[in-house]
Amino acid sequence: MSRVEDDDRVMKILLEALQKPPAERETYVRAACGDDDDLRREISETITWEERMGGFLRSPMVIVNDPSKTFRAGQVVAERFEILRKIGEGGMGIVYEAFDRTRHQRVALKFPKPGFQYLISPELESALKVRHPNICLVNQIHSADIDGQEVDFLAMEFVEGETLSRQLSEHGKLPQKEALEIARQLCAGIVAAHGIGIVHRDLKSGNVMLSPTTGDGLRVVIMDFGLAGVLGVDSAEGGTPAYMAPELLNGERASIASDIYALGVILYEIVTGRMPVEAEAAAPGKPNHFAAPSSLARGLDPPWDRVILSCLNASPALRPSDAREVIARLEKKPFPKAPLVMAGLLMVIALAIPQVREWLADIIWPPPSVRLAVLRVTGDTYSADKVEGIAQDVAERIRHMSSGRRTVSVIPLSEIVDKDIQTPEQARDVLHATHALQTTVKNEGDDLVAQSSVIDLATRTNLRGFSGHYSNATIGTLPTALAGSASVALRLHGSASPDALSVEATPAYDRGLYLLRKDEQSFDDAITAFEEAARLDPRSPLPPAGLVEANIMKYEQTNQERSLDEARRALRSAESLNPDSPRVRLAAGLLKETTGQYEQAVEDYRRVQELEPRNEEVFRRMAAVYDKQQMPSEAIAAYRKAIELDPGYYAGYEWLGVFYYYHGNYLQAAEQFQKAIDQAPGLYGAYTNLGAALDELGRDAEAEKALLKSLDLHPTARAFNSMGAMRAYQKRDEEAISYYTKAINLDRSEYAYLINLADSNRRLERAQEAKAKYREAMNMALAALSNNPRLGYDRGLVAYIAARLGDCPRAKDEIAQALRLSPAETKVIRSAVLTYEVCGQRDRAIELLQVAPPELLRELDRQPDMADFRRDPRFRQLVDQNPKGGK
Q: Which residue ranges in the chain fall short of pLDDT 50?
């Protein structure tokens, strides 16, 4: 391999590693380098150096150092940029102030240092999407020749002024009026970036610039928004500790919620002049129990305390859902105190009830009224008949939607035309609009491309962007899509247009739905059916929404990344037809859930709940996300709500049973699976699940009966695997291998079957066969984690495989991550116990079992690989102390 090719490989692996949380990097590098120890050592040393020195793209451009310069003042780069001076330097790159001779303005240029030229990858293109006055603009990625090497660099807006941190250090806390204005602009920028899926990851006062404008105005600019997020910098390496949410310190990935936490720290700073101060009554080791800001700043209005402390909540789920909610709550006027003591007492009692608390909150601090201006459609020269009347149509649709207790009015189009309103700012200043829907269209061949934005005119925040391609056959759906986009942004009730499907397309669509529910292997036929339905009715969002689900099912069975790409493409198509369709929002939530975007998935599912309060499916999906977010009580409540809405439908019972199974409550799981069978006696999957739960309970005869019934109804990989597991526990590994092989032949995507097959081969002393299957399972597990690294169960299996392959350092690292991701999941604890036992750390295994459920003790007391472990007096004591433990 040539030196250039070698450098290429090193830098590509390095970049991918730096995109992962620190705890996951060693695992990734080991997998990427294979048996090349020299390559692994070189990359690991480089990562260690970078972690110590700091990341170039995360470094605020206002930090100035004086190492040797790469460019001189006056030098021209890329025949366009004249270097003026160096203004900052990080571990991997240097920032210069320059003059752009093409645009005749000053810019900031970010260059990688020699040897790090691959750091600016095409993935940074997403940073170019962030366009907002409160975010530093990244203009373009350019190339320059440096010592004969083509190097990419970033051209960015040059922002004059000082950082918020310097302002606070020199002048202390800010008056409330100034603080509110800074908060307003900060929130506006954060909402704009979060709206297109970009998280900052290192939000802090040192990354906020205060730039003077004409008069006495002030522009607040967030630096590097999009760059840290694109690089995937996470955990301690990706942020400044004082601003990091507790979950980041525990190794979880950055999210909208962690940015909201950092925003809370900044707001605390600007109203108190200090970083958050621990409350006197705070429990030891709980730094997120902070003193109210008003205790440090006399005269501070009450909303500041409520909002800031909610942002700093230790639980991501209990923080404000987005920055728009933060500023809205800060700007609410306080309610006058009730004169009567009895009224106050009744208020306290009422607030104990969540539904009453929410109702009272809307009365005491009503949401701000909305006065929406639907602006005329503008853009390229096009046929007038294609878009004439669209604005009027959209306005009428929105006018007929309900909005709960909030006042929402739509400004008549006649007023907009009469006063020649062209821009959102004119709508605000002339018509006193609070929000505007702005739409532009342009020709693209024979099609029309539409783009729209719902803009909060008080904060200049783009609440929701929308883009869609339309042909002559589908242009009629544009009003529905625009009204739906506004409905989502403004949280309106009702639909812009009920989902409809032509008579011609209905049979193909219905067949697609049947195939999706039939089993887990008919995804290709379902995709074909939905594609046919979409061809027959290109105006309906239902077929592309079905395609999203079918492609996700295909991805889950095959681990093919292109299936996720197809799902994303189908979702864009569905949203272009009606983004506020319940089926479309369900599909969007499922896609986000599949890719580990749990917080965003919850938002989509909540929207479906608003549109269809009796949709039991959305409660099941919400429950699954709550489970993945380690919120078991909320998950159980949602599952039970789904059952309550449709007690005659088997799915609610089956999903709740699966939840109990993975949490080690096998008896309750078996009860739910039996209820599912009672509702649908031909449900072979429920018999499989029932057999697995009964097997965990040691009720072999009943388990075998249920599994044989499942196989009689329909042979499936899961049923064969469960039969194999039962034979393995009976120490009949030859028979187990036969069943495992049948399972794998039916479904080669499930690596748990490969692990079981490897275990049986190992116990039969077939070392080579076992090792080959462990390695195959490892590759498949890592592929699954690459798309969603928040899967604790899968990471636990990776740890176990690594242990069986003799790589205990990696196994211990992986299992630590799995336990952080899913600390209450019994299957993860089981993997941890097995991993620690294989790696000779029995003390750790015993320690984990101190709080283990009795079902896990019972299962381990039968586990064929744990014979010596079962004889340990400490384990026997745990079993004997638990009346439900033992064989």
A: 1-4, 51-69, 91, 115-123, 226, 228-238, 282-287, 333-343, 345-367, 384, 884-887
pTM: 0.49
Which residue intervals of 374-462 are DSSP H helices?
384-387, 390-399, 413-418, 424-431
Question: Cβ contacts of residue 490 below 8 Å, gap of 6+?
Answer: 370, 372, 403, 408, 435, 454, 463
Measured between alpha carbons, how far is 490 from 403 in angstroms, rounded to an integer?
8
Of 8, 19, 44, 12, which is closest to residue 29 (Cα–Cα)?
A: 44
Residue length of the chain: 887
Question: Tell me, what DSSP letter sits at residue 135?
Answer: B
Total H helices, total E strands in the chain: 41, 15
| DSSP string computed for 240-306 | -GGG--HHHHTTPPP-HHHHHHHHHHHHHHHHHSSS--B-TTPPTT-TT-B--GGGTSTT--HHHHH
Confidence at residue 573, expressed as pLDDT on a 0 to 100 scale: 92
Query: Which residues, 6 or more positions from 673, have their beta carbon under 8 angstroms from its beta carbon?
Result: 653, 654, 657, 686, 687, 689, 690, 693
**529 DSSP 8-state letter:** H
- Provide the 10 A C-beta neighbour count for residue 292: 18
pLDDT number for residue 369: 65
Q: How far apart are CA 691 and CA 688, in angstroms?
A: 5
CA count, 13 A, side-chain hemisphere, 8: 6
Residue 85 host element (H or E): strand 81-89
Q: What does the alpha-carbon distance between residue 517 and residue 553 come to, in Å, rounded to a whole number?
A: 11
**Domain ranges in the chain?**
1-53, 54-158, 162-343, 370-490, 733-881
CATH architecture of 54-158: 2-Layer Sandwich (3.30)
| Topology at the third CATH level for domain 370-490 | Rossmann fold (3.40.50)
CA 303, CA 292: separation in Å to the nearest integer? 11
Q: Can you list the alpha helix ranges (DSSP code H) found in 287-389? A: 302-311, 323-330, 341-351, 354-364, 384-387
Largest Cα–Cα distance in the chain? 88
Distance CA 542, CA 470 (A): 16
> Distance (Å, rounded) from C-alpha 869 to C-alpha 839?
13
Could you name the CATH architecture of 162-343? Answer: Orthogonal Bundle (1.10)
Q: How confident is the model at residue 488, as a pLDDT?
A: 82
User: Can you tell me which residue has the tokens 């998935």?
Assistant: 601
What are residue 154's phi and psi, to 5 degrees? -105, 135
Contact in structure between 755 and 740 (CB atoms under 8 Å): no
CATH architecture of 733-881: Alpha Horseshoe (1.25)
Token pair 């500023």: residue: 327
| 542 burial via Cβ count (<10 Å: 0-12, 13-18, 19+) | buried
- Specify whether the CB–CB gap between 691 and 706 falls below 8 A: yes
> What stretch of H or E contains 736?
helix 733-746
Q: Do domains 54-158 and 162-343 have the same CATH topology?
A: no
Q: Which of 331, 326, 309, 320 is nearest to 187 (CA)?
A: 326
